[in-house]
Design brief:
The complex is a heterotrimer of chains A (126), B (499) and C (456). Helices cover 20% and strands 35% of the residues of chain A. Chain A contains four helices and nine strands, in the order βββαβββββααβα. Chain B has three domains: 12-64, no CATH class; 88-345, Aspartate Aminotransferase, domain 2; 351-478, Alpha-Beta Complex (Aspartate Aminotransferase, domain 1), CATH 3.90.1150.10. Chain B has helices spanning 12-15, 53-64, 87-94, 96-99, 111-128, 140-157, 175-182, 200-206, 229-238, 259-262, 334-370, 391-397, 401-410, 438-457, 459-463, 476-481, and strands spanning 132-134, 165-169, 186-190, 211-217, 242-246, 266-268, 289-291, 304-306, 312-314, 386-389, 417-418, 427-430. In chain C, 38% of the residues lie in helices and 14% in strands. Chain C has helices spanning 8-18, 47-58, 80-86, 89-92, 104-121, 133-148, 161-173, 195-202, 226-235, 320-323, 336-375, 396-405, 414-417, 438-452; strands at 66-67, 125-126, 152-156, 177-181, 211-216, 239-244, 262-266, 282-286, 299-303, 309-313, 378-379, 388-392, 408-409, 412-413, 427-431. Chain C has a seven-stranded mixed β-sheet, sandwiched between helices. A four-stranded antiparallel β-sheet of chain C has the order 11-12-15-14. Chains in contact: A-B, A-C, B-C.
């Protein structure tokens, strides 16, 4: 069971929404699929993202994957720990492995995302 | 293996001692550089290591013994064609007349090499069924770029500027889509059919007025001949696009299928695969490109020309304005091409046809030996390579293809290509080539069958393999997270020296 | 077939095991209408005949000339130990080190190559090799575009013509702009990159420049104001690519010291014979800031399960097999064996030997200049050079041909490589290295004097 207080995309990003600030990362499932994560490429602060647009890239030893914005907004913070410790995405994907924070334009966009049960079903279907 | 076993070595930097070495070059006069402005001169000497020659020789000899190589054992790497590298080719390339020739030497002083290049173009044109060949590209990937840029130039010359897409099957080698991007095209990836071949209908659906080219490997990266290739090529041309063939698998079809005759517009050849030029630990290679008549005007410059009096010359700069230009300095990886020429002259038409026959025969024999122990996703006759899968073994034992590959090292074999193409789960792409004795093929099959049994009986043994290699499995995650890409003399070493 | 092991019995056994009677059945899936016409090639040659044939062809190349030809490929002494080590089958018949446990030889030697070149260029990140200096320069240009998000490259006209042409080809894919920076026409700086013109080219706000490329020494052999070129590039928000010659780096200031962001160059001088054009060694180097942008393989140091030091290809997710259409470059096969040759050469010569190679070349070149001037030639440019320079002689094409008849290869006829540049007509690019002898210099000078009919 994935954390109950988050919402999820079908591309395995998660979102924690508090008022108009959204914290974004990737799920444990995604991190496991990728293997040992070695690098996370994140956007510059101030960049505007549209929902579903690519905001960065996550690299493991043998794979690479695009990262998609779950909601539209402006990047206000990126996780400074990931530059030196990308493995946080493997060890604590829903916590210390967070990737960025967005100032969200329209919080109601979150309704289009999967709830925890919906995401669990997605990964069960494989 | 050497008498004492291969020994890990400290780096040449750790072996350096001030004052060692020397005796190779006469001392320059002390004032030789006085005429140069001080600002341009090096203020801090480069901290290059100083070794005496014996230490240096031991270093490189010992290091070499840590390598697996064709000359030490069987290397069934699918898609790489690890065949014997003939020694006469090394001798030929080193003849002073070839090795010492300057690339800008006047044509009249280079007639021997120019003749080889010209004849090699003819031979490769005949093998590929193409109208003309360029020997300029330094590798297959550079050949791909050459081919796609020629296709681009062709469309532009016809005012056809809307063709911005290149189609590739999902089984393609990574260089294909990477090449398309470098040439300014968008890659459209087309899923393969369940039988592993190109999905003709999916290709038809994707073909259109925005298609510049399709890039096809034939036989495919699964080692299977595309029987519907005629249909596909027709559909491509009807759509106004051109067809590129990735020639990596040419070893399967010498004398049996000529891509140019069948309708491909351009292809590259990997001399370091099909034509035995040595891989050298990652290169050099050469990637000659053959073209049909439509693309001849766009070939890279300079071409090698035969003059009426029977002599040879290089095209002069600007002589053929339609050319796409240069992909590199000088004429090409000529030293590699001399080796390929020697190989081709040694074989002749019959020899080359036998190469493909034996390569395909050996692959099908091995496939038969492994069926029943490993999954064989595609049952039909393969060409020079085939895919086996450990998917069932993984389900029953948890042991993966990666583990099986590492365990093969303990049996004295280099692992096959693993996890390529991407469309096969737990895949191993196995290519024996035509130069391996039957007893080697049998020993390899026996080892793989033994390892499958180990996976069930003693899985930890497989999971922790290799046990007998000079080093065990490596921490690749740390290597990528905290890259240490150069020796730092002043700050010292982070991991202890093996001595 | 010369190298095939299979006897008739072997083939029969394999056919039987597969359950077919003829190998042709394995090719049944080739549609009949697409089956090849027969291969129309001469019969294969047994090795004795092949060797004689190759020997005869090699004999048609001239190896007896007193050569003063450089222009991007150089005659140097190759200590025989280099090739004897290179001929070990474990080096040259090994594959790309994708299975590191059985490739530590190749991997460590590449790490050492990266480290050796890092010392020479004074930059921290060196790729495991590129095809040649021209392709490396083109990839460097593409790096500057990716890193800055800009689409325009400036290259000095004094960079090797083949490199500029290669740049044009590589940049055409992305519809990137390539402009050439002129050289100073006259005066003490003649033949070097025109800094005022460079500044003007950098000043167009509508077309910002991603990278500025200049060579040291430049193609004419002259020393360039590299630090100043770098300042101008950076002031305009662009990056600076230095095209370098590795032997010269033993005595010239390295690119890392004068502010280059990327260094590219040709490693052929490091123990690799000229071979009529290749295989050579593309050098590509940068600093940590651009490490993720560098194309090609990289080898890093790490440990194995037992804590043993080991080497592995790293940061692989940049490469084409993983990134596919998102890869920065399509490069796969590189020039690994040549990087090994360069490493062995550097390990053999050591820092003092390499310095002597560069300094001796400079000394011989000064002797050459004096002798040629005395014979009636004049230098085209007045500025300082290391071991290569342009001379002007009347009717250079005819002189070059007649000197060739006298056994002297009098450098490169510039009209052949730069036919469109009238300022270079009647110029010869001549070069001396540590292998150029006094006798050769005397022969060149005497022949030239005779052809010019100079009486002194």
């Amino acid at each position: 069971m994935v954390p109950p207080d988050l919402r999820y995309t079908k591309d395995h990003e998660w979102v924690r929404l508090a008022a108009d600030e959204a914290t974004v990362g990737i799920t444990a499932f995604a991190a496991e699929q990728l293997g040992d994560i070695v690098f996370v490429e994140l956007p510059a602060i101030g960049r505007s993202l549209a929902a579903a647009a690519t905001f960065g890239v996550v690299e493991s030893v043998k794979a690479v994957s695009d990262l998609y914005a779950p909601l539209s907004g402006e990047v206000v913070e990126i996780n400074p720990a990931l530059a030196g410790q990308p493995e946080l995405v493997n060890t604590d994907p829903f916590g210390a492995g967070w990737m960025l924070k967005l100032k969200v334009a329209d919080p109601a966009e979150v309704d289009a995302l999967l709830d925890p049960a919906g995401y669990d079903q997605l990964i069960a279907e494989g | 293996m050497s008498v004492t076993g291969p020994r890990l070595q400290s780096t040449i930097f750790e072996k350096s001692r001030p004052g060692r070495g020397g005796g190779k070059i006469p001392h320059a006069p002390k004032d030789a550089l006085d005429r140069l402005p001080a600002a341009a001169r090096r203020s801090q000497p480069a901290a290059l290591p100083e070794l005496n020659e014996l230490e240096m020789v031991r270093h490189y000899v010992n290091l070499s013994q840590l390598n697996f190589a064709i000359d030490t054992g069987f290397y069934p790497l699918g898609s790489c064609t690890m065949k014997f590298n003939p020694k006469v080719n090394e001798w030929a390339a080193r003849l002073p007349g070839f090795a010492g020739l300057h690339p800008l030497a006047p044509d009249s002083t280079a007639q021997g090499t120019l003749q080889i290049l010209w004849e090699l173009e003819e031979i490769l044109a005949e093998i590929s069924g193409m109208a003309a060949v360029s020997l300029q590209p330094a590798a297959g990937a550079q050949g791909e770029l050459t081919g796609i840029l020629m296709i681009r130039a062709y469309h532009r010359s016809r005012g056809d500027l809307e063709r911005v897409e290149v189609l590739v099957p999902d089984s393609s080698h990574g260089t294909n889509p990477a090449t398309a991007t470098m040439a300014g095209f968008k890659t459209i990836t087309v899923p393969s059919a369940p039988d592993g071949g190109v999905d003709i209908d999916a290709f038809r659906a994707a073909l259109g007025p925005r298609t510049a080219a399709v890039m096809i490997t034939n036989p495919s990266t699964l080692g299977l001949f595309e029987s519907r290739i005629g249909e596909l090529l027709e559909a491509v041309h009807v759509a106004g696009a051109l067809a590129y063939m990735d020639g990596a698998n040419l070893n399967a079809i010498l004398g049996r299928f000529k891509p140019g005759e069948a309708g491909f517009d351009v292809m590259h050849i990997n001399t370091h695969k099909t034509f035995s030029t040595p891989h050298g630990g990652g290169g050099p290679g050469a990637g000659p490109v053959g073209v049909g008549p439509r693309l001849v005007p766009f070939l890279p410059a300079p071409r090698v020309l035969k003059v009426d009096d029977g002599t040879f010359r290089l095209e002069r700069p600007g002589e053929r304005p339609t050319s796409i230009g240069r992909l590199r300095s000088f004429v090409g990886n000529t030293g590699v091409l001399v080796r390929a020429y020697a190989y081709l002259r040694a074989h002749g038409a019959e020899g080359l046809a036998e190469v493909s026959q034996d390569a395909v025969l050996a692959a099908n024999y091995l496939k038969g030996r492994l069926a029943g122990t490993y999954d064989i996703p595609y049952e039909r006759h393969c060409k020079h390579e085939f895919v086996a899968s450990a998917a069932t073994i993984k389900r029953h034992t948890g042991i993966r293809t990666l583990d099986i590959a590492k365990r093969l090292i303990d049996y004295g074999f280099h692992p096959p290509t693993i996890y390529f193409p991407l469309i096969v789960e737990e895949g191993m792409l196995i290519e024996p080539t035509e130069t391996e004795a039957l007893e080697t093929l049998d020993a390899f099959a026996d080892a793989l069958i033994r390892i499958a049994a180990e996976a069930a009986e003693t899985p930890e043994l497989v999971h922790e393999a290799p046990h007998t290699a000079p080093v065990r499995r490596l921490d690749e995650a740390t290597a990528a997270r905290q890259p240490n890409l150069r020796w730092r003399a002043m700050t010292g070493v982070e991991t202890p020296c093996p001595d | 077939m010369p190298y095939g092991p299979h006897t008739l019995a072997d083939r029969e056994r394999m056919l039987e095991a597969i359950g077919i009677t003829s190998v042709d059945e394995l090719f049944d899936d080739i549609p009949a209408n697409l089956r090849a016409s027969r291969l129309d090639l001469p019969a294969g040659m047994p090795e004795l005949e092949l060797a004689a044939h190759l020997q005869a062809l090699a004999g048609r190349n001239r190896t007896d000339l007193a050569s003063f030809l450089g222009a991007g490929a150089y005659r140097h002494f190759q200590p025989p130990v280099v090739d004897q080590l290179l001929l070990r089958g474990e080096w040259y018949t090994a594959y790309t080190p994708y299975q590191p446990e059985v490739s530590q030889g190749t991997l460590q030697s590449i790490y050492e190559y990266q480290s050796l070149l890092a010392e020479l260029v004074a930059m921290d990140v060196v790729s495991a090799s590129h095809y040649d200096g021209a392709a490396a320069t083109a990839e460097a240009a593409l790096m500057t575009c990716r890193a800055t998000g800009r689409q325009r490259i400036l290259v000095s006209r004094a960079v090797h013509s083949h490199y500029r042409q290669t740049l044009a080809t590589y940049l055409s894919g992305g519809d990137l702009e390539l402009d050439q920076v002129p050289v100073v026409a006259a005066g003490p700086l003649a033949g070097t990159t025109d800094l005022a013109a460079l500044e003007a080219l950098l000043a167009d706000p509508a077309r910002p420049v991603a990278g500025v490329i200049a060579g040291q020494p430049n193609f004419y052999g002259l020393l360039e104001p590299m630090a100043e070129i770098g300042h101008l590039a950076h002031a305009a928000g662009g990056l600076f690519v230095a095209v370098v010659e590795p032997v010269s780096l033993a005595v010239l200031e390295p690119p890392g010291a004068y502010g280059a962001d990327i260094a590219a160059g040709e490693g052929q001088s490091l123990g690799i014979p000229t071979q009529y054009g290749g295989p050579y060694l593309g050098i590509l180097a940068t600093g940590d800031a651009l490490v993720r942008q560098i194309p090609g393989r990289l080898v890093g140091m790490t440990t194995d399960l037992d804590g043993q030091r080991a080497f592995v290809m790293t940061m692989r997710a940049r490469e084409q097999d993983i990134r596919r259409e998102r890869a920065a470059s399509n490069i796969c096969t590189n020039q690994a064996l040549l990087a090994l040759a360069a490493s062995i050469y550097l390990a053999t010569l050591g820092p003092h030997g390499l310095r002597d190679v560069a300094a001796l070349g400079a000394a011989r070149a000064a002797e050459l200049e004096a002798a040629l001037v005395e014979a009636g030639a004049e230098r085209l440019h007045p500025g300082p050079y290391l071991n290569e320079f342009l001379i002007r002689v009347p009717d250079a094409r005819a002189i070059h041909a007649r000197l060739l008849e006298r056994g002297v290869l009098a450098g490169l006829l510039m009209a052949d490589i730069e036919p469109g540049d009238p300022g270079l007509a009647d110029s010869l690019l001549v070069c001396a290295t540590e292998v150029t002898t006094g006798a050769e210099v005397a022969r060149f000078a005497a022949a030239l004097k005779a052809e010019l009919g100079t009486v002194r």
